[in-house]
Design goal:
The chain is mainly α. It is globular and about 55 Å long.
Length: about 210
Amino acid sequence: MSNNTNAVAGSAAKSNVRNMVVIAMLGALSGILMVFDFPLWFAPGFYKIDLSEVPVMIGTFALGPVAGALVELVKVLLKLVTKGTDTAFVGDIANFLIGCSMVVPAGMIYKHRKSRKNAVVGIAVGTLFMAFVGCFMNAYVLLPAYGKAFGMPIEALVGMGTAVNPAITSLWSFALLAVVPFNLLKGLVVGIITMLLYKHVSPLLKGHQI
């Protein structure tokens, strides 16, 4: 009985160490992918899309939603350590919270029943939730905080949106016409790439032989 208990404890400890290594590795990969970003035509230039959420989503599906949130945290911390912040930490906090708003719901749905259908449903729900959270956070918290941090009136931020889309005339129209499409597109791209890659890399992440 004692030998069996020790064996189980040893196996659990080994699994925990492997998971920590995988989380660190995926977080590092996400941090690297953050460097390769580009602006979109329908949003001001400080909204840039990248593929850093792909390793986060893959880690979430492989190890669970808590692990996904930790990968997200490692990604943001690595970026702060290597590049610092050019948004007075507003963008970095937003990146973490809005990223988690996608991967955590997706991971919870997939963990309930691991199937391709649930993965698609999870990504879809996560994308919609991210768009919803991003919309409200930008309108009520992030854009006002960004403006305050850089001494910019809200009108100036709205004006940056108006420059790319004349229909943007207020914080709410900014959030609806720039932030929501941005997050929907990001979720779509991340979801498609995750679905293409996950089956091939998940055995490695879980410590299984291919």
